[in-house]
Amino acid sequence: MTLKQKSNIIASIGTLVALLLLFLLLWFVYMGAPVLPEDEGIEVAFGDVREAGGYQPEPEHQSTPMESVTPPPAPSKPTNNDLMTQENEETLAVQRQRDKEEKARKEAEAERLRQEKAKAAQAEAARIAKEKALAEQKAKEQAAKDKAAAMGSLFGNNAAGAQGTGDSKGEGQKGNPVAGYGTSGGNSWSLDGRSIKGALPEPKNEFNQDGKVVVSIWVLADGTVKDAQVARGTNVSDQATLQLALNAARKAKFSESDKSIQTGTITYNFKFH
Question: Is 109 exposed, middle or buried (0-12, 13-18, 19+ CB in 10 A)?
């Protein structure tokens, strides 16, 4: 037997031994593994997991399409520009109302001032007219006195004129019908061109005053006194005494005249008693 043949035999034996060992190894591995029942095997599924293990998905029902309902549009929120415009309009409305009220107030104030000025002008005109009438009356009285004084000097008698009778304090009444003035019991009267009828009514000095009360009188054509007011030259301040003088002056009676109204004066002199 040659060397080559020996080598081939040894290689074949080695190969058989290796195959035997591999067979034994696989045998022991197989025999050592636990035996699983047939229904507990592990299934490996490929694809959809729900289809694994015999799962059959139910057929999908096609849902009936619902009619689409369009939701109502949401109310738009006002923007900053809208808010500013609204505020400006409200401010303008308030300002217009205020301007209207201010205009009405100014017009009312102007009307009030106009009426006050008109009343003041009327009162001033009446005052001026009254003062003018009094000044004219005084001028006439002074002229009458001057004329009477001249006539008294001419005829050698006093300026009192004719002697009369009176009922005040037992003293007589003196007067000059032409000159239009006279005295009675310490009091006097003056009315151009007229004479007094009867005695000059005199107030009683009930409040024991000392002084002079000058009363302006307005006499009608029939000789009655229409009105009487306290005039300048009065130095008595007691209101009760002034009222007594006014009441007495309104009772005076003078001769008739063709003048519808005429102004004159009555002077009362009060003495302490």
Answer: exposed
